[in-house]
Specification:
Chain A: It is a multi-pass membrane protein. The complex is a heterodimer of chains A (165) and B (81). By secondary structure, chain A is mainly α. Among the domains of chain A are: 77 residues, NADH-ubiquinone/plastoquinone oxidoreductase chain 6, subunit NuoJ (Four Helix Bundle (Hemerythrin (Met), subunit A), Up-down Bundle), CATH 1.20.120.1200; 38 residues. In chain A, α2 packs antiparallel against α3. Chain A is globular. The termini of chain A are far apart. The radius of gyration of chain B is 16 Å and the shape is elongated. The mean pLDDT of chain B is 83. Classes of the chains: A mainly alpha (165), B mainly alpha (81). The interface between A and B is large, with 65 and 54 residues.
Chain lengths: 165, 81
C-alpha cells in the first residue's frame, strides 16, 4: 500500500513537473506546478515528515503559487507564443539534463548490488514537537537571521515594486 | 533544463523553485533515513530563503514588465557591454 502510494505520488510529481517545463501557456504551467507542490507534500507525509508537509502546503502551494498566479494575471500576457532561444543554448540545456540523468542512473546501478541496511532509527523525528525542540535549542541564531532576511525581502520587494522610485 | 530552455521570466523563476524543491526532497529523505532532524531543519530554512527570493524576483519581473511591456528574457540585454 505504501509503495503503491509512493509510486502514484512520484509519477504525479514528475509528470506535472515535465508538463510545467514544456507547457506553452504560462497559466497552465503554473497550475501544474501547484500539482507538483502538493505531490511533494504527499511525499513528505510518506517520509513521516509531517511538519515539512504542512509547511510545504502552506508556504509553497499557498503563498508562493498564489504570488506567481497574481503576477501572471496582473501582467496580462495574452500572446501565446514565445520566441525561440538559439539552438546552442537549447543543446546545452538538454545535454546538462542528460548528464544529470546518467549520473542518477549510475548511482542507482551502484546501489542495487549492495544490501541496504535499514537502520533502526527514530521514526518520529519529523514531528513538529521534535523539530521545534531542535529549532529553538540548537538553531536559534539561524532562525533569527532568517527573520531578518524575510524583513529585508519585504522591504526590497516593496521598494522595487513602487511605481515611481 | 527549464531555466536554459524557456524565455518567459516567470516560468524561469518557477523552474528555480522546482530545483529547490528537488533538493528539499532529497534532504528530507536522507534526514528521515538517518533519523536525524538537522536535514529537515535545513529544508525549513531553504523554504524561508525561497519565499524571500520569489517575492523579490517577482517584484523585479513586475518592474521590468512596467518598463518594457514584456517578460521575455531575450530583450533584457540592456546590460550587455
Amino acid at each position: 500500500m505504501d509503495q503503491f502510494l509512493f509510486f502514484l505520488v512520484a509519477f504525479l510529481a514528475v509528470a506535472s513537473a515535465v508538463y510545467f517545463v514544456f507547457a506553452r501557456n504560462p497559466l497552465y504551467a503554473i497550475l501544474s506546478l501547484i500539482v507538483t507542490m502538493f505531490s511533494i507534500a504527499g511525499m513528505y507525509v510518506l517520509l513521516n515528515a509531517q511538519f515539512l508537509a504542512i509547511i510545504q502546503i502552506i508556504v509553497y502551494a499557498g503563498a508562493i503559487m498564489v504570488l506567481f498566479l497574481y503576477i501572471l494575471m496582473m501582467l496580462n500576457l495574452n500572446k501565446g507564443d514565445e520566441s525561440k532561444k538559439n539552438n546552442t543554448l537549447k543543446f546545452v540545456g538538454v545535454f546538462t539534463a542528460g548528464l544529470l540523468l546518467v549520473g542518477v542512473l549510475g548511482v542507482f546501478r551502484g546501489v542495487q548490488d549492495k544490501h541496504i541496511v535499514v537502520e533502526n532509527v527514530d521514526r518520529g523525528i519529523g514531528l513538529t514537537k521534535n523539530l521545534g525542540r531542535l529549532l529553538f535549542n540548537e538553531y536559534v541564531l539561524p532562525f533569527e537571521l532568517a527573520s531578518i532576511l524575510i524583513l529585508a525581502g519585504i522591504v526590497g520587494a516593496v521598494l522595487i515594486g513602487k511605481k515611481d522610485l | 533544463m527549464g531555466v536554459l530552455l524557456r524565455k518567459n521570466a516567470i516560468v524561469i523563476l518557477g523552474c528555480v523553485e522546482l530545483m529547490l524543491n528537488s533538493v528539499n526532497l532529497l534532504l528530507a529523505a536522507f534526514s528521515a533515513y538517518k533519523g536525524n532532524g538537522d536535514g529537515q531543519l535545513l529544508v525549513f530554512f531553504i523554504m524561508v530563503v525561497a519565499a524571500a527570493e520569489v517575492a523579490v524576483g517577482l517584484a523585479i519581473i513586475a518592474m521590468l514588465y512596467r518598463n518594457t511591456r514584456s517578460v521575455d528574457v531575450s530583450i533584457f540585454n540592456k546590460l550587455r557591454g
